[in-house]
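Subject: Interface between my chains keeps coming out wrong

I've been trying for a while to get a sensible model of this assembly. When I model each chain on its own everything looks fine, but I need the whole thing in one frame so I can look at the contacts. Pasting all components below, labels as-is. Any help appreciated, I'm running out of ideas.
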Amino acid sequence: MSEHSGKDVKADDFVIAKVDLCLLQDGTGPLAVRQLEELGIKRVVNPQGVAVFLDHAAPSPRKELSNDHITLRNFARKTGSYIFEIGEGVCHQIMSELFTSPGDVLVGADSHTCTGGALGAFATGMGSTDVAVAMGLGKTWFRVPRTIKVVVNGKFKSGVYAKDFMLYLIGSLGAEGATYKALEFTGEAMTSLPMSERLVISNMAVEAGAKTGIFASDKITKTYLKQHGREEKYREMKSDKDAKFEKEIDIEVDKLAPMVSLPHTVDNAKPVDKIGKIKVHQVFIGSCTNGRIEDLRLVADLWKGRKRDPDTRVIVTPASKDIYLMAAKEGLLEAFIEFGAAVTTPGCGACVGVHGGILGDGENCLSTSNRNFLGRMGNPKSFIYLASPATAAASAIKGEITDPREYV
Amino acid sequence: MKLNGKAWKFGDDISTDLIAPGRYFHLRSDLNELAKHVLEDADPQFASKVGKGDFVVGGRNFGLGSSREHAPTIIKLAGVSCVLAKSFARIFFRNAINIGLPAIECDTDKIASGDELEINLENGVIRNATKKIDLKFAPLPKAMTRILQDGGLVEHIKKHGDFKIE
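Reply #2:
Try treating it as a single job with all components included. I did that and got this:
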């Protein structure tokens, strides 16, 4: 923040900071475009730092949304911004693969923009007007957040993943336990995590109310950037030696069990072996939280030689085109189809209740996404449970929420 | 500035999915139509009952979830002049100010549905005329007051050509 505002700042200061990257998606982008027009601004300061994603309605299920897509395509063409067509994937996954680098300030008109914290960026979600102004002026205002240091030690037990840790943390902090604050993740259980798992944790920081959820950059960050042809973007980002933290939370990860968040709030998290028998009508594996290749490999492995429960339907949505391609080449898609799953276009549709997985009245969905609010998946008379890909995969076999430790 | 109206009370954790449900995603470029569904999943009749100048009163963590600015926008379009809650989710709060909808943190346990309120934004006092009590609230940070007084972020930038929040 100090570097981007040109002065030495501390928590609670109000600053105007330079913005490196802006993100728009098809749910929030059209309003941002209209606000920019209202401001009379016809260009964006840095088109190389603006990315527009057609991901929430991909492919579009309605003419209104097709028209919104036209608005965004025209905007990208006129301003020279990047546009990602339907099928290319979920905005946060592509931002991580192609754009977000350590030390960047990233603002996105999507609450899960905080995903970028996994790469050592200051990444946060804002509304359409804020992002419109950030595109038009190249800067925005921030109140520098206080930071909660989350120190996680020990080793993840078999069947327990970053998702379980995050559901546990949100359950103990509460859905507003970190409002206006930054979460910083450290300790051996975090520094040893691969990028795919760090992205899960940063992605869900907002579910505890946090402005961002950040990891120091390290050799894992560097390797990830290299895999995506961006090694030169690596720089070391870590908190100052004399950094002041509002508080420190210590967690021993060995003690964690697979977790499930019950309807209708994310902080309603309980160990999977303490929730009793819950029938699952639909399993959804995908989203910016858990639609990565590592997730899909784990699921395919668990499903090998098995069939879904006949009363449970299954949707698998790879988070990006590259992940989809890898899954095809590695034979994962075959495994999914043979298991009895429907594989759908990379995008956000099912998670956000737009299309491609809307629930019926009274139905339960076990989802690997990040939100289980009433109505989230398109029907206020349905129930959403959140869990890891392993728990979701195990549950699809049995037709009820199942402890993945029975299989892994 | 003084605001007068009737309170409509909601509970804790009113998410943006309850305020602007995803099943109306296709109406996001038709905000007046979307506003007919405002808060529908929290109170199905709300849009037809709310009057001009009325207040939405929530509990803790009002507006959690998605960054959709459409949520505060359709609350405002429905005629609501101010949102009160014990606490707000960060993005909703910022969005409300940006679109010129005052958002006040106060002890909303002392407000019930139907109470007549008079809110003085300058001196930080809510008069609950029905219960005959006064509630105090802390003023907004200066940056947000500036934006709100200009009528929202678009008007603020139009007026000053830049951020003028200090």
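Reply #3:
Confirming on my end. The mean pLDDT of chain A is 97.
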